[in-house]
Automatic annotation (TrEMBL):
Membrane-spanning residues: none
SUPFAM superfamilies in alphabetical order: GntR ligand-binding domain-like (SSF48008), Winged helix' DNA-binding domain (SSF46785)
HTH gntR-type domain mapped to chain residues: 5-72
Stretches of the chain forming a coiled coil according to its record: none
Protein name per the record: GntR family transcriptional regulator
InterPro entries assigned to the protein according to its UniProt record, in alphabetical order: GntR_C, TF_FadR/GntR_C, Tscrpt_reg_HTH_GntR, WH-like_DNA-bd_sf, WH_DNA-bd_sf
Keywords: DNA-binding, Transcription, Transcription regulation
GO molecular function: DNA binding; DNA-binding transcription factor activity
UniProt lineage: Bacteria, Pseudomonadati, Pseudomonadota, Alphaproteobacteria, Rhodobacterales
Source organism of this protein record: Pseudotabrizicola algicola
Pfam families according to UniProt: FCD (PF07729), GntR (PF00392)
């Protein structure tokens, strides 16, 4: 069974994310029944999460209306950034880091996982399932697991960008490509908000980068392109776990993303593809500072 504190913290995080992205706004009601249905949990943990949100100043009682949102988007983002990680998030991050830095073998049994990280069977199952969903690990026959190839060397990082250079600019030029103007407007708004902030949050920049590239892939209406870009996004998450992503480069990427969106909005897909090519070449030319596995 999931740890009570972990579940409550996860719900707190999910509500704050809804406030940050504008789904919930200052003064909106926070109803237990609606939230429990939305998150697929009972009302009891939602009630406890709302109590925690009130303690954080993110929720407050609004008279007969019950609990309501008490923070604007910017304040909610600051609160979200200061939340502690859930226990299982910390375990998953540690396992990913250990693989990235070569501290665990590629093939490892569930028993070895339990002993190394002091985990119960149910907790380990959830952690391994989450890592599998991220493309970091896959199940072998029996009770074994194997880590997937990752971007932990300069050579693998370059090969990843070479692959993306073959796929992503070309996707924009596909006959099936249809520019989603409404989706682009929402992504652009998030880019503009981040670019206007004096301080940048690494996780938020990283997620926005993932979202942008997956959005462009989706516009291609080609399922294989979407699958390829999603897999590359998953591989890059290990770089975030290992704190090797350059915040400055991601900030420049945001500006380049906006240029690509502008070109697509103007109907110039050839120019957009050229910017995408230069965007990926610039990222390849500014690799993380790999220090392990050489």
């Amino acid at each position: 069974m999931e740890a009570k504190s972990d579940l409550q913290l996860r719900l707190v995080r999910q509500v704050l994310e809804l406030i940050v992205d504008g789904t919930l706004k200052l003064g909106d009601p926070l109803r237990e029944v609606e939230l429990s249905s939305q998150f697929g949990v009972s009302r009891s943990p939602v009630r406890a999460a709302l109590s925690q949100l009130a303690g954080l100043g993110a929720a407050a009682r609004g008279g007969s209306r019950g609990m309501q949102v008490a923070l604007d988007s910017g304040s909610a983002r600051t609160t979200l950034e200061n939340l502690p990680l859930e226990d299982e998030d910390q375990i998953r991050e540690q396992i990913a880091k250990d693989w990235f830095e070569g501290r665990v073998p590629r093939e490892i049994s569930e028993k070895s996982f339990r002993l190394r990280y002091n985990l119960g069977k149910m907790t380990l199952t959830r952690v391994l399932t989450a890592l599998s969903d991220e493309g970091i690990i896959s199940r072998m026959p029996g009770y074994g697991w194997q880590f997937e190839p990752t971007l932990n060397t300069l050579e693998s990082n370059d090969a990843s960008y070479d692959f993306r250079l073959l796929i992503e600019p070309g996707a924009i030029l596909q006959p099936s490509f249809v520019f989603d103007a409404a989706g682009a407007a929402a992504i652009r708004a998030r880019h503009n908000r981040i670019l206007s902030d004096e301080e940048h949050n690494l996780a938020e920049l990283f997620r926005l980068d993932e979202e942008f590239h997956l959005f462009i892939a989706g516009c291609s209406r080609n399922g294989f392109v979407v699958q390829a870009v999603a897999q590359q996004n998953r591989l890059r998450r290990l770089l975030e776990y290992a704190s090797l992503i350059d915040t400055g480069r991601l900030n420049s990427s945001c500006q380049e993303h906006v240029e690509i969106l502008d070109a697509l909005h103007a109907g110039d897909r050839t120019y957009a593809a050229n910017i995408m090519r230069k965007h990926l070449e610039a990222a390849k030319a500014a690799p993380p500072s790999f220090t392990v596995g050489r």
